[in-house]
Amino acid sequence: MAYTAQLTDAARTYRERMLPGCEPDLLSTDPEFAERFINFAFGEIIEGTPELDDRTRFMCWIATLLGCQGVDEFRVIAPAALNMGLEAVALREIVYQATDYLGIGRVYPFFKSMNEAFEAAGIELPLPEQATTEPTDESRRAGGTEAQCAAFGENMRGFYDSGTNGRELMNHWLVKNCFGDFYTRKGLTMAERELITFCFIAAQGGCEAQLRAHTGGNVHCGRTRKFMIDVVNSNLPFIGYPHTLNALSVVTEVMPEA
User: Fold this and answer.
1) Mean pLDDT score, 90-100
2) Is the pLDDT of residue 163 over 80?
3) What pTM did the predictor assign?
4) What is the per-residue pLDDT for 258?
5) DSSP letters along the chain, please?
């Protein structure tokens, strides 16, 4: 006789809110695993991080799946994110910005999955334009400088001209491309852009220096230590314990208890 998964009421209720009437395939093929994963990811994790609202949680999950290259799970979570309050434009902005931190080679497959989710939801493509800078060096540099200062503080003003020892072009591109092309776009707030960047970096691992810098960016944008720990804990089912523990170590190092 086939094993019947024993889902908790909390996990079943939350997943039904995510994807009404949709039972995961693993409940049929791998019911023991599905039982433990669903109860943990959509039961215990939600109960353990109750201060995260659904929109923020799914925004972080989308960014985390990009960071860890979880495109198959992204196909499940993207429609759920739309159901749970994440706007289509915001979801698209997360995917766009990921190219700065992951590269197009790793992000391109997510475009197809994202657009499939939009089409299934009856959302017309392309979505409305969100750019606030013109595709000129002058506009991108000016906008990028303001965005970089908004994310990290006025000490970043002049960063464009600060590069030495081979970093000159890199600093130009960080201002014009990373910040001028993407951080200046509408659809997400500056605090949300710094938050998803933290999730991209934490999920891909091996970039702790950058994770420290963007933890600092989250501090500058008003995030608290408790909030960042909740985000890290909420992302655990999608990236596992090693990357989660590394991210927790960085957060508690950069944001010590008051």
Assistant:
1) 98
2) no
3) 0.96
4) 60
5) --------HHHHHHHHHHSTT---THHHH-HHHHHHHHHIIIIIHHHH-TTS-HHHHHHHHHHHHHHTT-HHHHHHHHHHHHHTT--HHHHHHHHHHHHHHH-HHHHHHHHHHHHHHHHHTT--SSPPP---S-SSHHHHHHHHHHHHHHHH-GGGTTGGG---TT-HHHHHHIIIIIIIIIIT-SSS-HHHHHHHHHHHHHHH-S-HHHHHHHHHHHHHTT--HHHHHHHHHHHHHHHHHHHHHHHHHHHHHHS---
